[in-house]
Structures are given as C-alpha cells and as structure tokens.
Amino acid sequence: MPAARESLLDAAYTALTERAWTAVRMVDVAAAAGVSRQTLYNEFGSKEGLARALVRRETDNYLAGVARALSQGSPAAGARRDAAGRVAAAAAWTLRTARANPLVRAVLTGCWSDRLPAPAAVGLAPPRATRPGIPAQRTAPSGDGPLPGPAELVGRFCDQAVAALEPDWPEEALPALCTACETAARLTLACVVAPVTPGSAPSAGRAPAPRSRRELETEAVSRLVRGAFARIPADARPGEHC
Question: Which of 25, 66, 156, 201 is the least buried, fewest Cβ under 10 Å from its Cβ?
C-alpha cells in the first residue's frame, strides 16, 4: 500500500525532527500515519527497516532534486552551454538540502549525531576512497543494495551532472567534462562539511548590505564550481551552435 508507506515515512521523519530516533516509538509513528502498528511492521519489518527506508527515501529525493536543478534551462541553447551554471544550481540545491534535512547531511558527510539512526542500523555502505574511470560509466547500486555513503552519494551527483551535460559536448572533450564535474562534486561536499560563515568582506565606497548565510554559501559554491569549469580549455567546450 504505497499511500500508507509514504504516510508512515512522513510520520517517521516528522517524529525525527521533534526528538531523537531512540525516543521514536513505532506505535506513535503508526498512530500519526493513521494506520495500525501491524501495518507498520508489515511494511518495514522493524524499526531498523523503517530507518533504512527513511534514509533511502530522503537521499532519493535529494538526488531527484539534483536532476531537476541540472535540467533547468536546458531547452535554450544558451542555457545548455552554461554547464557551470547548471552544476552550480545542483550544488546550491545540495547546500540547501543538507542544511534543512539532517538525514541527507549525515549521509553526505558521514557524521551521524546521536539524534539520528545509527549508520549500522540503516546499513550504510562504507565510503569508497576512489571512483573508477569516467563517472557516467558507473552503475548505481540497486534498490536492495547498501545505502550510499558520502563517496557514493557524491559520485552519483557527479554521474548525474555528466549524464545531463554530455549530449552538448564533443566526444573528445568528455574526459575534461568528467573531471570538472568530479571536482565540482567534491567542492560541493567540502562546502557541506565546512559551511561558509558570515564575515565582512573588504569593499570600496559604500558598505554592502548584510547578506544571509544562505546567500554567502550559494555564492561561494557557485564560484568554486565555475572555477572548476573555467579550467576546461576553451576549444574543448561546446560550440556556439551546439
């Protein structure tokens, strides 16, 4: 029953925002979703199964948002050529989601507070030190496999970026595109791990208006992503009529 499953996951996430996961009771989750406790156990098997499904849903929703950000503006030729802008939009989405969603932040960083399900309980795969070859050639884990760890999730960000952008790039330039996407993904993760802190920037003349942390973080990650793409030689980028 998909509707009951989503209602249960919604209720579990709401409960997690209000108290530590160890204090979340299955009976309360079932009641909040308007179903019986037996329905909850039939759907997820155990509290650990519920935690696993919740983490998977939140990470899948995050990756769906990455795909949306990468696709924005793609019908226009000028937007298609702004590869850095599209990846920067996905990076900004990553920062916003990590700030708002403690589960996505934990999976991205590998830092699980005692308020969240323990990594062992949700069966997270251990981070991988390296990723092979061209990112777009990797295969994402199956729905029944281990949940992604930080390196895997960043790798899937990179894969989606390459897949979204490569139709506009000449084949000989794909290695440079993959390198830029990989660098952008890692820089985005660095911004999640160590968020920008508001500070005063030197300026000439009139002092600038105060800026929010979100604005500063978005500007910082955009600058880093565009820097990664700026290192691609001009003759390796899509032409004016691609």
Answer: 201
